[in-house]
């Protein structure tokens, strides 16, 4: 099967995204992860742009050992000299030269005639050939360049010594048919084209970058250029992960594939998102949060019966653990039942029907129903929890120069009052330690959260806690205009649920949370 080389320009074109500014350490960190991903070529930057960019390219060149390190250069001797300096120490250096060739660029940007473009590019390639054995040449805005002139430019570049010819759709203007036809024409008409690799560099202004890159492959491209998560100028570049997974998933059609380590894709995506500050949209292909998530009841039912009904690739392939069946208002009874089983609940048909009705009512109010919501729904509405302890009184003493102290009095179901005092790291901690002493229950606080349920200074505060006791877990909640009282109520509520669970150990122990 034909190998497609991957030229990653996350550190150069990707960094040109508005608002992105990677320092040297961050560039090296991303480059080392790209090396783990096994990209073939890493374009580390544009050395002539600034001393900082030159230093960053040099740092990447020294750090990476298993990929070609590329530096971008205009067709100027001073740019080429800056790239030479930046690539010192690289195991396998490559120079990426470019010069615009389209009519609009020739007229308004370069103010050159066709023969001047040819002469300038040829002189730059020949000068670079003195110092580099690998030279990639890009006729900028090739997509809008006259096809006859583009063939002439490519023929010149091959004769001058270029080893890779890159065809950029610089402004994302091409359609897949048009872009693929450029490669087909170059293969048919340019002498010596078999001596070089053809590369495709696409932008996503019309949303066709991935489609155009794949069209180029179908018409003879040997290499695709792009970025992780598709970041880059304006609407971005070809997303490398999309092309790689398209070739992997549809190998029967393309008869070509990359040699990327595919299970490093998710990790690489997260790193690039974190360091660039560019959040990956939830619906982004391959690496978006929803790429392997299913909420529709029909889809969930199919997934539970056979994953390939609604998934054309496995999440494990890109380094994720599993698909997610998201419980929401579109979820069906089958997925809800499986979720309950996964959480360790076994309900009768009558209880399941009641729980599902309550779940649907809750899902109409909330976009995403969490595990804690389901626990609360079942324990409060379906199972019911006897109140072994009830909060009767709470008093907290706090000063910024003294340890917080809490006195808590609770009543047992048999009417006995239990009062204890404790100190803590904070007011809530003191309250919880006093409750522990009063109830004589040894528990571990797994989660604590506060949210307002009304508005204004007198807003009601709702506290949620999750307590663990051995392999048993329970959620509690409390509501009050005083957040300390709400905290105490939530804690006691959770303790009551733990006690109830101990009496019925088979009904609601923590299970393997494989569905979210």
Please sum up the structure shown.
By secondary structure, the protein is α/β, with parallel strands linked by helices. The protein is built from 17 helices and 18 strands.
Notes on the protein architecture:
This protein has 17 helices and 18 strands. Mean pLDDT is 87; it is low at 507-516. The chain is elongated. It is of the alpha/beta class. The two termini are 38 Å apart. 40% of the residues lie in helices and 21% in strands. The protein has an eight-stranded parallel beta barrel with strand order 2-3-4-5-6-7-8-9, surrounded by seven helices.
What is the mean predicted local confidence, pLDDT? Answer: 87
Number of H- or I-type helical stretches? 17
Radius of gyration: 31 Å
Low-confidence stretches: 507-516
Q: Into which percent range does the helicity of residues fall?
A: 40-55%
Biggest sheet record: 8 strands, parallel, barrel
Largest beta sheet: strand ordering = 2-3-4-5-6-7-8-9
Structural class: alpha/beta
Outline type: elongated
CA-CA gap between termini: 38 Å
Strand content: 15-25%
Structural features:
disordered C terminus; three-stranded antiparallel sheet; 17 helices; alpha/beta; 18 strands; single chain
Layout of SSEs?
Layout: E1 2-3, E2 5-8, H1 24-37, E3 41-45, H2 51-63, E4 68-74, H3 77-86, E5 93-100, H4 103-110, H5 114-129, E6 135-140, H6 147-160, E7 164-169, H7 176-189, E8 197-202, H8 209-218, E9 223-226, H9 240-249, H10 251-254, E10 256-257, H11 265-276, E11 293-294, H12 297-305, E12 324-325, H13 333-343, H14 349-363, H15 371-383, E13 389-399, E14 402-412, E15 417-423, H16 427-439, E16 444-452, E17 461-469, E18 472-480, H17 483-503
Parallel strand pairs: 1-10, 2-3, 2-9, 3-4, 4-5, 5-6, 6-7, 7-8, 8-9, 11-12
Antiparallel strand pairs: 13-14, 14-15, 16-17, 17-18
Helix pairs in contact: 1-2, 1-11, 2-3, 5-6, 7-8, 14-15, 16-17
């Amino acid at each position: 099967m034909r190998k497609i080389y991957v030229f990653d320009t996350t550190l150069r074109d990707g960094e040109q995204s508005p608002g992105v500014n990677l320092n040297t350490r961050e560039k090296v960190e991303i480059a080392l992860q790209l090396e783990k991903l096994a990209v073939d070529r890493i374009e580390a930057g544009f050395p002539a742009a600034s001393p900082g960019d030159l230093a960053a390219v040099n740092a990447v060149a020294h750090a990476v050992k298993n990929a070609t390190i590329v530096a971008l250069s205009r067709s100027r001797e001073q740019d080429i000299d800056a790239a030479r300096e930046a690539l010192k120490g690289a195991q396998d250096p490559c120079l990426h030269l470019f010069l615009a060739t389209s009519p609009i660029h020739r007229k308004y940007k370069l103010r050159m005639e066709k023969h001047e473009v040819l002469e300038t590019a040829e002189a730059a390639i020949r000068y670079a050939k003195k110092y580099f054995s690998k030279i990639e040449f890009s006729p900028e805005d090739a997509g809008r360049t006259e096809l006859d002139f583009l063939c002439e430019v490519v023929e010149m570049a091959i004769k001058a010594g270029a080893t890779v010819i890159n065809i950029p759709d610089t402004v994302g203007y091409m359609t897949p048919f048009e872009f693929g036809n450029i490669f087909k024409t170059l293969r048919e008409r340019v002498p010596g084209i078999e001596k070089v690799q053809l590369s495709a560099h696409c932008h996503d202004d019309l949303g066709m970058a991935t489609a155009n890159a794949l069209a180029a492959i179908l018409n003879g491209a040997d290499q695709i250029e792009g970025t992780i998560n598709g970041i880059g100028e304006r609407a971005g570049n070809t997303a490398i992960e999309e092309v790689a997974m398209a070739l992997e998933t549809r190998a029967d059609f393309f008869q070509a594939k990359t040699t990327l380590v595919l299970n490093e894709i998710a990790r690489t995506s997260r790193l690039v998102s974190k360091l660039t500050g560019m959040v990956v949209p939830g619906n982004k292909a391959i690496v978006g949060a929803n790429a392997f998530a299913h909420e529709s009841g029909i889809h969930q039912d199919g997934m539970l019966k056979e994953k390939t009904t609604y998934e054309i690739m496995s999440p494990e392939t890109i380094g994720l653990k599993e698909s997610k069946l998201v419980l929401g208002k579109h979820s069906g009874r089958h997925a809800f039942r499986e979720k309950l089983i996964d959480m360790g609940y076994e309900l009768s048909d009558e209880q399941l029907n009641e729980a599902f009705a309550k779940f649907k009512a809750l899902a109409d109010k909330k976009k995403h129903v969490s595990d804690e919501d389901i626990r609360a729904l079942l324990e409060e509405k379906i199972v019911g929890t006897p109140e072994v302890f009830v909060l009767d009184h709470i008093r907290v003493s706090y000063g910024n120069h003294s340890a917080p102290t809490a006195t808590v009095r609770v009543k047992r179901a048999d009417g006995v009052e239990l009062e204890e005092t404790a100190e803590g790291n904070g007011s809530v901690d003191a309250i919880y330690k006093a409750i522990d002493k009063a109830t004589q229950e040894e528990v571990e606080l797994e989660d604590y959260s506060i949210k307002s349920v009304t508005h204004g200074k007198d807003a009601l505060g709702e506290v949620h806690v999750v307590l663990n006791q051995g392999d048993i877990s329970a959620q509690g909640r409390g509501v009050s205009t005083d957040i300390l009282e709400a905290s105490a109520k939530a804690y006691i509520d959770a303790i009551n649920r733990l006690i109830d669970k101990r009496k019925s150990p088979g009904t609601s122990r923590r299970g393997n949370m494989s569905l979210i």
